[in-house]
Amino acid sequence: MGSFDVPLEDERTQLNAFIEDHRTAIERTLEGLTEEQARGRLVPSATTLLGLLQHVTWMQRVWFEECVGGTSRQDLGLVGSPDESFRLSGDDTIASVVAAHEKACATARSMTAGMSLDTVVTGHRSGPRTLHWVYLQVLRELAQHCGHADILREQILAE
Asked: Does residue 2 lie within any of the structural domains?
């Protein structure tokens, strides 16, 4: 067996490990920062470090709770679009956004526990997807936003 020919359960373990690494990495970008720093806008868009974590939380709830779980965004109490998911309320704090992220991650873990990567999920607006596809999509988005967060943190710490 070649190095890329891994059994399905090994692939699942690897996907879970990469997703967990990125979940932890994006949370860590907020460590040691003040609330003001976490909310600071350093780019023309509404993107902030705290807003990125809020968006990543929303994204994971969409893919796992809506797509896998079959519950609509409206029923989940989620905003309708990615752009809206970056917007912070006055009540949002580092602690509250991290707690919401950790809760979303725990929900995703429990929802997918025991599911095969070949499981077809039907809650996606564009049609059925496999759990494998959902995992890859979540990993892609986490990796992208971790990069954004690293750059924003670097800018904050350089000031």
From this structure: no
In whole angstroms, give the CA distance from residue 7 to residue 14.
11
What type of residue is 9?
A: E
**Total number of domains in the chain:** 1
Q: What angle do CA 111, 64, 9 make, to 5 degrees?
A: 60
Q: What is the CATH number of the domain that holds 119?
A: 1.20.120.450
**Residue 150 in domain:** yes
- Residue 16 structure tokens: 């879970």
Q: Which of 84, 102, 104 is nearest to 30 (CA)?
A: 102
**Residue-number span of the structural domain to which 18 is assigned:** 11-158
pLDDT (tens digit per residue) in 4-48: 555 555 889 999 999 999 999 999 999 999 999 999 999 998 899
Position of tokens 């190095």? 3
State both tokens at 99: 């707690």
β-bridge mates for residue 130, sequence order: 120
